[in-house]
Amino acid sequence: MPSYRRSGRRAIAAGPAPGPAKLPEVRTQTGALPAAPLSSASKATATAFRVLAAISFCHLLNDMLQSVIPAVYPILKSAYRLDFRQIGLITLTVQLTASLLQPFVGIYTDRRPAPYSLPVGMGFTLVGLLLLSAAPSFVMILPAVALVGVGSSIFHPESSRVARMASGGRHGLAQSLFQVGGNAGSALGPLLAAMVVLPGGQRTIAWFAAAALLAIVVLTRIGAWYKNHGAARAKATLAAHQQRAPLSRRRAGAALAVLMALVFSKYFYLSSLTSYYTFFLMSRFHVSVRSAQIHLFIFLGAVAAGTFIGGPVGDRIGRKYVIWCSILGILPFTLALPYANLFWTTVLSVVIGLVLASAFSAIIVYAHDLVPGRIGAISGLFFGLAFGMAGIGAAVLGWLADATSIAYVYRVCSFLPAIGLLTAFLPNLETGYHGSRA
Fold first, then answer.
1. Where are the domains of the chain?
2. 51-101 pLDDT, tens per residue?
3. CATH: 3.40.50.720, 1.20.1250.20, 3.10.450.30, 1.25.40.20. Which one for 45-243?
4. Residue scoring higher pLDDT (323 or 244)
5. C-alpha dist (Å) from residue 383 to 222, 250, 332
6. Which of 61, 124, 212, 273 is the most buried (most CB within 10 A)?
7. Mean per-residue pLDDT for 8-18?
8. pTM for the full model?
């Protein structure tokens, strides 16, 4: 064989042999080079359940501390000889600071991320509780409860952002876990107030500052995670959304208006049950206060279960389907409730609470997907709207009950879920965005 061909074969055979050419091939085959990027990508897309558990626990503490305020109204009314107008002013102060500030906090943190704003917000709550425990007059009660409201207004938009960062694409599950913590806290606050504050008096409100301190410690750790890992997750999610076909501003605005109408429907109807269900049962069926409270507890348990279920179901079948079922789907049950006997009233209230509560997680995540990159503003808008509608609903329905009857209130409210028909005007984001979970 000619030497030229031998040398050519040797050159071809030995081509990969030299160090500069062979080294990348060997390292690629062993996985040494791609190991770090794969690990980072895996971490960026994994669901951070420890972070979700921590932020849900802090949501429990935050809402528990906020719910202590209405629970101690009897003490404040007696100590300062307040009338119902002054009690209403305290409620208005809390609602205004806790709801109206939330969108503005979200808009600010969308533009300027603030990982440690969560412990700062809880610091406002801590100061407010200490001031409330030592307030010498009605004039000092108002700034005290306002500080608690400010702390809540900072907490909700940013903690909702953290839940989305930690979701790993399972946004519905993350929001459900986050919101279940708040539901548990709202139920726990009045119970603890009855056990601690009612026997001990106003000064024992200061004991709840220990819960605020615990929350500050946990939220500081969450802030460190947010700074070191969460920001990278948020950028990856936003980049995935930017690859999707965007909706026009007009269409996105119309969809947000529909979602707001759905939140109005949900929370006005929920106000009729959370605020007046016991009175309805005692008026219609002549049950005892204790029995009515047990029925309310059963209903609130169904609400907590529905809150948890709605998110994961939305991850699987799509948010729009959950919104359809949870708002419009309860219409037959709400229409039947005012005319049912006690047994079926209990059954219907459980079904209504379970199904209706599943809507909010789906609405929040749908709104996040609708306006990507505005997580804080959207969270603040919808959490603030939910708080506002709950407060306004309780006031309006109370006035209506005084003017007519509690039974009439339930007959009127039974038609509210029909607003769920507006869901037909929501764009199908799952189809339009190719089913991405980013």
1. 45-243, 247-438
2. 999 999 999 999 999 888 887 888 888 888 887 778 878 878 887 888 888
3. 1.20.1250.20
4. 323
5. 21, 23, 27
6. 61
7. 46
8. 0.73
